[in-house]
Amino acid sequence: MIELISQNPILAALAALVGLAIVFGALLGFAAEKFKVEGDPIVEQIDELLPQTQCGQCGFPGCRPYAESIANGDEINKCPPGGQSTINAIASLLDIPAPELDAEHGEESEVKTVAYIREDECIGCTKCIQACPVDAIMGAAKFMHTVIADECTGCDLCVEPCPVDCIDMLPVEETIADWRWSIPAKPGLIATDKRGELANQPAKEDAA
Amino acid sequence: MQEFAVILVSSILINNYVLVQFLGLCPFMGVSNKLESAIGMAAATTFVLTLTAMASYVVNALVLEPLGLIYLRTIAFILVIAAVVQFTKMFIEKTSPLLYRVLGVFLPLITTNCAVLGVALQNTSKDLNFMQSSLYGFGAGAGFSLVLIFFSAMRERLAAADVPVSFRGAAIAMITAGLMSLAFMGFSGLV
What's the domain count of chain A? Predict the structure, then answer.
């Protein structure tokens, strides 16, 4: 064997390169198994920041497809339910400047809303059930429907298909569980205020 | 001990791969726009350089020389480098997905970074032993990191500087790199 190799240098060269390739291939195969990445971790992180309303206002079927699209370089300002705070969070995650919310996809609503079906008017057509992205509407054909308020994300998608217009978007009522102190108004003048604020303050009071 | 210090100083400053030997200029220009990505690239390249210096020494000493296949060095080393870069890519993709996104195409392009092949070939032509070659590889990586990070910090400042219109962008970057290279020539008499 050794004699054969020493007499045929081309065989030795072939054997050496093939051997090296096999060794490296085995190492890489082992590493690929060990460092396996499940899905795209960036998509997971973006998806966690999105509000999970699944409302489709961004033009994608849900939050996860939009997260995948952002990971592939789409604009991050297409999510009205998330609003500016979501845009800022994604921008800081991806280390890019935060744009304003794109008005084309809708406006950020001030209050969180929840869908409410006026049950005596409902004709049981199931159209709102098909429209709901999060399966928050219960009911069957020819039977009255109702909304599971805890599951409803307030996305408005069920209002449009209803043939008898019996769905209202009501603001979420405050309960003891989610009541919070309101954010304090801007404090009055303090000694370290900048000159501009000092100068502007009396003018504002005059106008009021 | 003193010998190791000499190798480090020589590979980092005197024979700096980028600014004195002009190897590995592609990532030097390509990834120096932002300081953070430059630091990531510097770390990845240092890792690759050190590993390839070790692996290519082993391949050279245990496979190529006993079989009398020294003429296969370039091909064998390219094989080593490609494997190490692929390994690094997997490692970074797992440990830091954000860095993986930022580096993008420049990560697999470390394979074609001529500094990496340069280190492997110079180690064999200088007849260094295992310890010396791995130190030489690490020193080359540290030197690359040093100038890449300096250069990207300068380019971040340059972005805000008032540069004449015709010199903006790549032109002023080239001039900066040239001036840095001139400065590094000053180290040539150090050892």
Answer: 3
Residue B61 is assigned to a structural domain of this protein: yes
Asked if A35 lies within 8 A of B90 by C-beta distance, the reply is yes
Question: How many Å separate Cα A131 from the centre of its chain?
Answer: 19
A31 interface with B at CB cutoff 8 Å: yes
Domain range for B46? 32-148
Q: For residues A30 and A49, state if they share a domain.
A: no
Per the structure, the complete domain to which residue A23 belongs is given by 2-34
Q: Would you say residue A91 has pLDDT above 90?
A: no
**DSSP states of A38-81 as a string?**
-S-HHHHHHHHHS------TTSSSSHHHHHHHHHTT--S---TT
Q: Are A99 and A76 in contact (CB under 8 A)?
A: yes
**CA distance to A51, A91, A161, per residue, from A81 (Å):** 7, 16, 20
Q: What is the pLDDT of residues B47-89, one digit of tens each?
A: 999 999 999 999 999 888 888 888 888 999 999 999 999 998 8
Chain B within 8 Å of A172 (Cβ-Cβ)? no
3-state secondary structure B31-99: CCCCHHHHHHHHHHHHHHHHHHHHHHHHHHHHHHCCCCCHHHHHHHHHHHHHHHHHHHHHHHHHHCHHH
Do residue A95 and residue B64 have CB atoms under 8 angstroms apart?
no
Q: Is the pTM higher than 0.90?
A: no
Check whether residue B89 and residue B144 sit in a common domain. yes
Whether residue B137 is found in the same domain as residue B166:
no
Helices B170-185, B130-160: axis angle to 10 degrees equals 130
